[in-house]
Each structure stands twice: as C-alpha cells, then as structure tokens.
Amino acid sequence: MSSGKLSDAFKSHPIFLHKQHPDDFSSLQELPESYAWTSQLNEYPSFESLSCSESVPVIDLADPNVVELVGHACKTWGMFQATNHGVPQKLVDDMESTVRSLFSLPPQQKLKAARLPDGISGYGFHRISAFCEKLMWSESFTIVGSPLQHFCQLWPQDHTKFCCVTEEYEKEMKRLAARLMWLMLGSLGISKEDIKWAGPRGEFEDASAALQLNSYPACPDPDRTMGLAQHTDSNLLSIIHQSAKASGLQVFQEGKDEGRGWLMVPPVPGAFVINVGDFIHILSNGLYQTPLHRAVVNRSQHRVSVAYLYGPPENAQVSPLSKLLGPNCPPLYAPVTWNEYLGTKAKLNNKALQSLRLNAPLN
C-alpha cells in the first residue's frame, strides 16, 4: 500500500480535535466530564440478546452456497462474520499482540508517533472525534503504507518484528479483501469485465487501503461514555478483527416488533467481521446496506480491534454499476472518487453519502 494521493484528501481537509492527544486512561479513576456523553447513548435501546435468526450472520467462506449467503447478508444486514477465510490464526494472534504492545506503551512514547492534524498515519484520536461534542473513550493508530517510520519511533530497538507482523497481516488482508469483493459482486451478477478499475486480472491491484488499530481501555463509568461514535465506513469494505473476550461492536438495526435499536456483535472465534462500506452501497445502487455501527466500552476489560479499510484506487470514478440500472432502476448516486469522497466525509461526516444522492429509490 502506498499513502500516495490518498493522504491528499486528508491534507486538504485537516481535522482539528478538542484535544491534541488522548488522555492516559490508566490514570483516570473517574469519568471526566469531557468524556460524559448525554446524546447518542440511549436514543434507541440496545438488544442484549436476540435469536440466531435475528443476529449478524456467520458465513463459512468454504460453504458451496457462499455467494448467495454473502449477497443475502449484504442486502439485509450490510455486515457478516466470516469463518474459514484462510488467514492463519497465529498471524491474527501476533497482530493482536502487536496492537496491545503498541497501546500499552507509555503515553510519551506513543506521542512520538502522533498523527499531525492534516495527516492520515500515526497515533491519536479517531477523525470522527471532530464531529462529537464529547471525547471518546478510545485511542487509535492508523497505518497507510509501511509502518516502518512510526514503529521506529515507538520501538527504536525492537521495531523489526512488529513491522514484519504488520506487513504480513496487510498482505493477507489485501488478498482476502479482493476475494470478498467478488463474493459480494458475484451475487449481483457482476463480472470482472464490468469493473475497469479492478485491473486486468480482476485482483484490484491498485486498491487503496489503511490499517486502523483501535484501543478501548476499561472505563470506570462505561454507561455514560462512547468508545467510537456511530458511523458508516467510507470505503468498499472493512475486515475487522476484535479481541476474543470482550464485546463492544454494535450495529444499528431496523427491528420489526421490537422497533429500532443497537445489537451487539459478539466475537466469534476465528472469524472476521465484514462491513459493507459506502462505496459498495454506491456500486450496488443501494441494494447492499452500509450499516451504521459504533463501539461501546466496559468496566473491566481492555478491548482492542484491528480494522482493514479497503477502498478503490484513489482516483477511480465509482458509480452504480450499469448492469444494475434500467428504466425502473435509475442511478441513485453521482460518480465519485475515494479522494473526493474522503474530503466530503471530512466535512459532512454521516451526511456525506446523502449528499451524492440523485434519485429516490423506486419500489
């Protein structure tokens, strides 16, 4: 991966946050007022438990019917958990260990790799923090391209092993992301010839990507704060590893009898959570959902996650696929590049997708 022009979208729209850097959470015995949320926490209920038929699907990628299963999950949930994905479990475990090692470093050490206001890589708050009145109980570290420069700052004498793990993880994620793309698109009847920016071999060689490392420390008052505010993902798809012993990821669902609410997505051993991003929603002309999701925190456990954010080539024009259009199915969204969209998202946040809307969907 190369940061290349992808960084330009962030430099053109710098994010200035409430504070320059996160607090040292381990030193906080009470929830500071700056982290006390009064909105978004209870506007809809959280569904603590639902039946298996009402939970995020778990899909075995070796299932003979995987294309149909993935398509149905994307249409109904915009999210699923993938097992039998081919990524070695040892690599996943080593990546989680790297993340835990990074966030357990002393605050002053982490600040040596601090993200600049107009930057994309490094340590700091999530960019979505700029749209929140209160701070989020979390830390983040973004990697675009090689992690070498930042890891040399974090671990001057011991960076090589962490770099090797991260680069191998990125390689496996890129391979898996291309496979998932064709499972998603295959369910819509889309072939490699239908997407020019997929490359001559249809492997999305020029795809853009970022690795987002997230830390959600144990919190003295978890019911009054937020780990990561509600949002949709600005990319094609996200591949998320969440630590095994602590739940925190929630997805927003339109219920039937229960009404609307937040559903916990518990970790499944050996599985990745797959999120449909805004760009798959655009490509599918609204057939695939881009789910609103968030992260909550807990009182006793330090939760971490690793999100691989997979997007199109920076300057590829993305629009609803022509095979999905017709007299009764006009394009719902205007063409846009990921560069342009990241800039729009930096200004409009969760209203960015709606700003591209051309038509209302026809029943």
TrEMBL record:
Keyword annotations from UniProtKB, A to Z: Dioxygenase, Iron, Metal-binding, Oxidoreductase
Protein name: gibberellin 3beta-dioxygenase
Pfam families: 2OG-FeII_Oxy, DIOX_N
Pathway as given in its UniProt record: Plant hormone biosynthesis; gibberellin biosynthesis; Hormone biosynthesis
GO biological-process terms attached to the record: gibberellin biosynthetic process
PROSITE patterns per record: FE2OG_OXY (PS51471)
Top-level division of the source organism's lineage: Eukaryota
Chain ranges of the Fe2OG dioxygenase domain: 206-312
CC cofactor: L-ascorbate
Organism whose genome encodes this protein: Malus domestica
Coiled coil: none
GO terms of molecular function: gibberellin 3-beta-dioxygenase activity; metal ion binding
Family statement: Belongs to the iron/ascorbate-dependent oxidoreductase family. GA3OX subfamily.
The keyword Cytoplasm appears for this protein: no
InterPro entries: DIOX_N (IPR026992), IPNS-like_FE2OG_OXY (IPR044861), IPNS-like_sf (IPR027443), Iron_ascorbate_oxido_reductase (IPR050231), Oxoglu/Fe-dep_dioxygenase_dom (IPR005123)
EC id: 1.14.11.15
